[in-house]
Amino acid sequence: MAKLGRTKDQREALVKNQCRDLLLKEKIKTTLAKAKKTQKFCEKIVTKAKDDDQSTRRELRRHFKQETVEKAIELGQRYRDREGGYTRVLKMGPRRSDGAEIAVIELV
Fold this sequence. Notes:
Layout: H1 8-25, E1 27-31, H2 32-49, H3 54-61, H4 66-78, E2 87-94, E3 101-107
Antiparallel strand pairs: 1-3, 2-3
């Protein structure tokens, strides 16, 4: 399990923030390890957002603000007929400064 050089609280906050950005912008650029962690979390969020009811909205509000919840519900409706695989991670190559593997994660 990748710890990303952070404590558990910091890791969870990082993944939530990246997921929020991915839901709102539909495409973000980050390191490969962060992209893989974000992909796993975002897939679960979109799957939950398929059920547009009060309990789902309440659960999503635990993680995100209202704007992001609305976008997640919209994406849930877009992917209603899809069983999974809402995101794609594309490797971009190493970063010049430190050689970290860069990737783009986007919604399909």
